[in-house]
Structures are given as structure tokens and as C-alpha cells.
Specification:
Distance between the termini: 33 Å
CATH topology of the largest domain: Rossmann fold
Pfam families: DEAD, Helicase_C, HRDC, RecQ_Zn_bind, RQC
Number of helices: 29
Structural class: alpha/beta
Protein name: DNA helicase RecQ
Bound molecules: adenosine-5'-diphosphate, zinc ion
GO cellular component, one term: replisome
Enzyme class: isomerase
InterPro entries: DEAD/DEAH_box_helicase_dom, DNA_helicase_ATP-dep_RecQ, DNA_helicase_ATP-dep_RecQ_bac, Helicase_ATP-bd, Helicase_C-like, HRDC-like_sf, HRDC_dom, HRDC_dom_sf
Number of domains: 4
Largest sheet: 7 strands, parallel
CATH architecture of the largest domain: 3-Layer(aba) Sandwich
Strand order of the largest sheet: 3-4-2-5-6-1-7
Length: about 625
């Protein structure tokens, strides 16, 4: 057991090594830690998986007093405390889930100086008794986690966060550190103002997540495409599948389960206890797939989520990046996969049109959607486009996204666009009628459908002039024109209408480059072999793979016995290194990254026994 009194005199690097078992700080962790240890305020922006927790956990251990962590994620506090306890750190939490006895115990420990970290829900700071409790103890620092919750424009807004500026007024000498993975500079400015952190030092990391492979594919039969992805590239892996509606969450979860993939639904329509139970199972069991609306995911710090799949178009690049960022926190290869089609554009545009709020609000939504569509339609490196969106200069093609791995062809779609827009123009004159994309394409392809003949559209001059493209290609044309705002949809039936800029194309004053629609679903082989985002045992030396499996089995049993998620015991990355290095003694084992003093004392002998057994039985 690490002795807490020793730690008090230790420096940050020693804490990193002894408690967490890591050799070196990542990125600017050390700068943040030094700054906060010295009593400074900090605003930290780092992508998910960047290592934000250490930025406040280590100062809390080094400075005298208790580090108070404000977090909106009540359902995850127990896991956070369990993970710290496993490291030998003394942690507790206060929130509405505790009964009176448990609350009293935590309060007593806090007052006796027997805690290193105390987690609080933001609403707790609105209660007088909690504030008085804090007044009676010694506080090392305040950490405000998920600080973007203070932003009224973001989708995670928590009114209680607005009151957090009181921390500074009430405890002016206690350093504050606010942390978020939300990247835009507008959000950053809002956090600084609302939390009264304008004088704080800002630490802004690169938002690149090189281990995540970004892929956006044309949507055909989305559930089947998803199943193929899971079977081919992620058998037995844990992952998250995002859907827009509760109904499609339910259907997709049923579909996966019926096809032998262990999947659970999660959406706001399920009662709280079912949601909590599903989240709990996702965190604790290996290899479960969570099918969810965006109600799921904030603060999920499961390190081995191997893929995040979107079956519907996200509303903004911010949301998309935050959701996909939940993959691969452990730094191992992971996949972010999105299936996207014409219907998504029509649906999202319609949602905006019918949304509540004034015109300015709707324009804001449309701007966000446009950026997302531009990402989907780009022929450039997806990562470069994402990073530029967040204000980071592009560093060239990444080599780990679909456009880098399998460059799409672009083609001059000006004439096709003119044909389509002319058709829309002709139909537009029959104002009382409602004609969507399907009907326009039927006309272009010269199909005498019932509707075409009923309205006499086979006598239009545009009838049958589009034979050079397949139906899927025409849908691509419609989608890309919608994405670029050269065409719009209106009303409940998705009627196509011209926009102010359509005339530029019709009048040949503007050309339109398009992304070519692939003939068949692109094979995923290229992505797979290059990124090997496969099962967790990929890439291990042949001799180490069976050892890794044994270690995982040992870990699963230990996690079950203690009632904690497997990753609280050791991360995959640590077990992989143990399997590869095959340490022969406790001293050698202690050098593996992720093996701190407490875990060495607790599990060291067991690990060596598993290794010895693996060596003798082969
Ligand atoms: P964030 O909160 O920014 O999403 P975490 O704090 O959960 O990220 O850290 C992500 C992962 O990286 C965790 O598994 C953590 O243990 C690991 N990690 C953080 N800092 C280091 C480091 N300096 N060396 C090795 N691993 C680290
Ligand atoms: Zn790329």
C-alpha cells in the first residue's frame, strides 16, 4: 500500500511513477501540474483520452488538503472512486445516490483529512450544508470536469454549472482547474468568462487522435453494413453505435442481438434503472456493443472502446468529434465509422426547418449542419478537415482515414447538376404538387412509373436525359447539391426546390465538382490491414497472444470478484506489455507502464503465477 503521508512530500514525477506506474508525462501534463501545484488557475483543453485526469489528480496528491472535483456524471462517480482506490488513492464522493450513513462516513473522512480526492455533483455546491462542510476542511484545489457544461449553446448544458463562479468568491486562495474535451475557441471563451477564469492560464492541446481511423461511407442498408463492419473488423470488441431516434436504437439493438452480437439499447425513453444497468454492463463486461442515442456517452472513460459507429448523420462536427472521441482512449487502433446518405440530409434539413427558436437560431443550426455535410462530402483527408475546423493548421494527409487509404475520385458534375436542377425547375411550376428526389430521378432516367405517367411528366423535355448515370449516382448528385446549398428541401414530403444559388449553376456561372459514388460497397480490407483495428490481441508477437488471453481471463475473474470494471484492475495496454515482456520478478514487473506500487503489491504475485503457468503449459 502506498503510504499517504509519504506521498505528501513526494514530487509530481514520483507520484506519477509510484501511484500510477507511468514513466513520463504526456504532452503538457507536467506544465499544468506544476502550475496548479504552485497555486495557479488553469483551463485545460485536451481531447478525450488525452490524460486530463492526472492534471488534477496529481496536484491533489501533492498539495496539502483534499482535491474537490466537480463532475456532472453522478452515475460514474463510484467507478472513478473505485479506480483511484485500486491505485491506493483515498477517494470518496458526495451525491444524491448516497444514503445518510455513507454520506456521514465520507464527510467524517473529509474533515479528518483522510481523503485525497472528493467528487461532488455541481448541485451539491448549491446546498449550504455542503459549503459549510468544505469550509471546515482543507481544500487542495477545485477541479471542474466537463467544463463545457457551463456553455448554454452546447448540448450538455447544466444550469448548476453557472453557479460555479462562486468557488472563486468563496475560496479565493484555492486554485481552480477547469477541464474539457470540447475544442472550439468559442466554447473556450465562454467557459473562461462564465467560470471567472479569464485570468487563468490556458493549456490547449492538439485535438488529433491519430489512433482513430475515420471513415464515412455511403449509406445503403445501414444495419447490414454495420454488421459487416463488426464481423470483419471488430469481432468481440466493445463499441458504441449511435442512432438518431429511440425507435432505431431499439431496432438496431435487436438486429445485432439476433445476429449474434451482444448489444444493449440506451436512450432517454428507457427508465433510469434500465439505463443505469445497461451502462453498468457496458463498463464491466468485455466486448459489449451499446446502441444509443447521444444521451449516452459523456464521461464514459472505458479505455477499450474499439469503435464508434454512426448510423445517422450527426448535427454538428463538434458533436461528431466528441462522440467518435470515445473510441480508443487507451491509444490502441480504433475505428470511427459513419454511414451517410441522401435521406440524412433531407431529414436534418427538415428538422431544422421545423425546429423551435427564431431565425437566428435556425441559421446557427444550419451552419453546424453545413460543416458536417462538408466533412462527409470532402475528397480531402478527413482528419485534416476536422482539425482545421477546430482551428488547428493541417499537417498534410494523415494516412489513416478513408480518403487517405482509398482516395475517392472527383468528377465534374456541372452538367448532371444542370439536368437535375432543370427538372426541379420544371416541376416547381406545378406548385400544388409535391415531388421528391425519387420522382426527379425517375424522370431523368426515363422511367414511366405510375406517378410519371399520371402527371404527364414523360412529355417533359428533361424526360430520359439522365441515362449516363445510375440511380445511386443521381442520388449522390442530389445529396451533394443539398449539402452545398444549391438545392433545398421543403415540407413534409421532402419536395426539392431551387435556392438563390441554383441559378449560378443553371446559368453556367458556376461548376460543381462531385465525389464519385463507388460501384459497390468499398471493401474494408485496405483499412483493416493498414490500421489493424481488429481484436485486442492483434499485433502481439505470436508467443505472447495466448499469454495475453490468459491474463485477460485472470483479470475478468478478479474484476468480477471485486465488482469493478476490468480496466480498473489493468488496462489492455498494460496486459499486452506484460505478455510481451514476460517479466520474471516483481522488480521487472514494476517497470511495466501502468503497474504502480499498490497494484504491484496487490496483484504482482498473481500475475507472475499466471505467467509461470503459461510458460509450463505452453
Ligand atoms: P481524458 O480524461 O483526457 O479523456 P484520461 O485522464 O482518462 O483522459 O486518460 C486517458 C488514458 O491515458 C488513461 O487510461 C490514463 O491512465 C492514461 N494516461 C494518462 N496520462 C498518462 C501518462 N503520462 N502515461 C501513460 N498513460 C497515461
Ligand atoms: Zn486522412
Amino acid at each position: 500500500m502506498v503510504s499517504p503521508t509519504d506521498l505528501r512530500t513526494a514530487d509530481a514525477r514520483e507520484v506519477l511513477r509510484r501511484v500510477f506506474g507511468y514513466d513520463a508525462f504526456r504532452g503538457f501534463q507536467q506544465d499544468v501540474i506544476d502550475h496548479v501545484v504552485a497555486g495557479g488557475d488553469a483551463l485545460v483543453l485536451m481531447p478525450t483520452g488525452g490524460g486530463k485526469s492526472l492534471c488534477y489528480q496529481i496536484p491533489a496528491l501533492v498539495r496539502p488538503g483534499v482535491g474537490v472535483v466537480v463532475s456532472p456524471l453522478i452515475a460514474l462517480m463510484q467507478d472513478q472512486v473505485d479506480a483511484l482506490t485500486a491505485l491506493g488513492v483515498r477517494a470518496g464522493f458526495l451525491n444524491s445516490t448516497l444514503d445518510l450513513d455513507a454520506r456521514r462516513r465520507v464527510e467524517a473522512a473529509f474533515l479528518a483529512g483522510e481523503l485525497d480526492l472528493l467528487y461532488l455533483a455541481p448541485e451539491a455546491l448549491g446546498s449550504r450544508s455542503t459549503v459549510q462542510l468544505l469550509d471546515r476542511g482543507k481544500i487542495a484545489l477545485f477541479a471542474i470536469d466537463e467544463a463545457h457544461c457551463v456553455s448554454q449553446w452546447g448540448h450538455d448544458f447544466r444550469p448548476d454549472y453557472l453557479a460555479l463562479s462562486m468557488l472563486h468568491e468563496r475560496w479565493p486562495d484555492v486554485p481552480r482547474i477547469a477541464l474539457t474535451a470540447t475544442a472550439t475557441s468559442a466554447t473556450r471563451a465562454e467557459i473562461a468568462t462564465r467560470l471567472d477564469l479569464t485570468g487563468a492560464r490556458h493549456f490547449v492541446a492538439s485535438f488529433d487522435r491519430p489512433n482513430i481511423q475515420y471513415r464515412i461511407v455511403p449509406k445503403r442498408e445501414p444495419r447490414k453494413q454495420l454488421l459487416a463492419l463488426l464481423r470483419d473488423e471488430h469481432p468481440g470488441d466493445a463499441g458504441i453505435v449511435y442512432c438518431l431516434s429511440r425507435a432505431s436504437v431499439e431496432k438496431t439493438a435487436e438486429f445485432l442481438t439476433a445476429n449474434g452480437v451482444a448489444a444493449l439499447p440506451y436512450h432517454a425513453g428507457l427508465d433510469a434503472s434500465t439505463r443505469a444497468a445497461h451502462q453498468q454492463r457496458f463498463l464491466r463486461e468485455d466486448g459489449l456493443v451499446m446502441v444509443a442515442t447521444i444521451a449516452f456517452g459523456m464521461g464514459i472513460d472505458k479505455p477499450d472502446v474499439r469503435f464508434v459507429a454512426h448510423l445517422d448523420l450527426p448535427k454538428s462536427v463538434e458533436g461528431y468529434y466528441q462522440e467518435t472521441g470515445r473510441a480508443g482512449r487507451d491509444g490502441l487502433p480504433s475505428t470511427a465509422w459513419l454511414a451517410y446518405g441522401l435521406q440524412d440530409v433531407v431529414q436534418q434539413r427538415k428538422l431544422i426547418e421545423t425546429s423551435e427558436g427564431d431565425a437566428a437560431h435556425r441559421r446557427g443550426l444550419a451552419r453546424h449542419l453545413d460543416a458536417m455535410l462538408a466533412l462527409c462530402e470532402t475528397v480531402r483527408c478527413r482528419r485534416a478537415q476536422l482539425l482545421e475546423y477546430f482551428g488547428e493548421p493541417a499537417t498534410g494527409a494523415c494516412g489513416n482515414c478513408d480518403t487517405c487509404l482509398d482516395p475517392p475520385e472527383s468528377w465534374d458534375g456541372t452538367i448532371a447538376a444542370q439536368k437535375l436542377l432543370s427538372t426541379v425547375f420544371r416541376l416547381d411550376r406545378e406548385r400544388n404538387q409535391r415531388f421528391g428526389a425519387g420522382h426527379c430521378i425517375d424522370i431523368l432516367l426515363g422511367r414511366r412509373t405510375e406517378k410519371v405517367t399520371q402527371f404527364g411528366h414523360d412529355s417533359l423535355t428533361v424526360f430520359g436525359i439522365g441515362g449516363e448515370l445510375r440511380e445511386a449516382e443521381w442520388r449522390g448528385v442530389v445529396r451533394q447539391l443539398l449539402a452545398e446549398g444549391l438545392l433545398a428541401v421543403e415540407g413534409d414530403y421532402g419536395t426539392l426546390v431551387l435556392t438563390d444559388t441554383s441559378a449560378e449553376v443553371l446559368g453556367r456561372r458556376r461548376s460543381v465538382m462531385m465525389r464519385r459514388e463507388p460501384e459497390r460497397p468499398a471493401s474494408s480490407r485496405a483499412g483493416r490491414s493498414r490500421a489493424s483495428a481488429a481484436a485486442a490481441s492483434a499485433e502481439l508477437p505470436p508467443a505472447a497472444a495466448p499469454v495475453f488471453e490468459r491474463l485477460r481471463a485472470w483479470r475478468a475473474a478478479a474484476a468480477k470478484e471485486q465488482g469493478v470494471p476490468a480496466y480498473v484492475i489493468f488496462h489492455d495496454a498494460t496486459l499486452r506489455q506484460i505478455a510481451t515482456d514476460a517479466p520474471a520478478s516483481l522488480a521487472e514487473l514494476s517497470r511495466v507502464s501502468g503497474v504502480g506500487e499498490n497494484k504491484l503489491a496487490k496483484y504482482g504475485e498473481q500475475i507472475l503465477a499466471v505467467l509461470a503457468e503459461a510458460a509450463t503449459t505452453g
